[in-house]
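As noted in the main text, all predictions were made from sequence alone. Below is one such record, for ABC transporter ATP-binding protein.
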Amino acid sequence: MTTTAIELDHLSKDYGTRRGLADLSLQVRSGEVFGYLGPNGAGKSTTIRLLLDLIRPTSGTARVLGLDPRGDAVRLHRRIGYLAGDFVVDGRQKAGECLTFLAGLRGGVPAHRIAALAERLELDLDARIKSLSKGNRQKVGLVQAFMHQPELLILDEPTSGLDPLVQQTFLDMVTQARADGQTVFMSSHIMSEVEAVADRVAIIRQGRLVTTDTVADLRARSFLHVQITFAAPVPAAEFTGLPGVTDLAVDGTTLTCHIDGSPDPVIKAAAQHTVTALRADTQDLEELFHTYYTGQADQPRNGSAA
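Prediction:
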């Protein structure tokens, strides 16, 4: 197994009048869970289709499991489990029949493996696919991606349509896959969906990579929401300009602000007055993610971290 599962070097894809992907350089290590985050239309599915040679790049290169997605497509696809963002199969088949057929295309998967995954996801294998809800059709897609225990799982919006309990089951499956040495590349537009399982995340916006980092480091960059209530009104001028303070507002006896860094200067300034209440909340990662993909974060970092 290669130490790098996915390596993209200045990968671009143009769709005529619009660009789907622009100069993307990225590395995904073998054995990690990698969250690929961005709003709808950011370029996530375009990246995945390039990895699988479903479309061809305008420029740049991609290596997947050490192979060329175009020249080695047949060998490569045997080693990958893929769930498309628009998973579609013949609706006339029963779920079990469909999965048995797909397993046969892969050279065979033990029936007990399919049955165990279906039971875990509460999927009725006797139900015809056309009768299934979107969430239950998504379960069929998840079983076919996981059933042959591939080296690399490429999952495009995998929890679409799943209820919260099944979403947690899916995250448990991802955790188990990592423990078994598999690599997971998982696209999403929901930060909280990957926060619990991802080793690293990349955020993409308008076809360009904004940042690549660990979840822990992203959290370290988040700021504090602070609300302080005083016994009497305080002058805003005493807090304006303090290190790390932004979005300062004083409404009567209540002061609110954001603090990026140590809260010590604000606490010392507040101590000059009688404080009756204080609340400080860490910025939610979903909010931080939103800051990145709306373009309000710091200078973008093209993070092909090793």
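The chain has two domains: 4-219, 223-282. Residues 26 and 304 are 4 Å apart (CA to CA). These features were considered when defining construct boundaries for the mutagenesis experiments described in Section 2.9.
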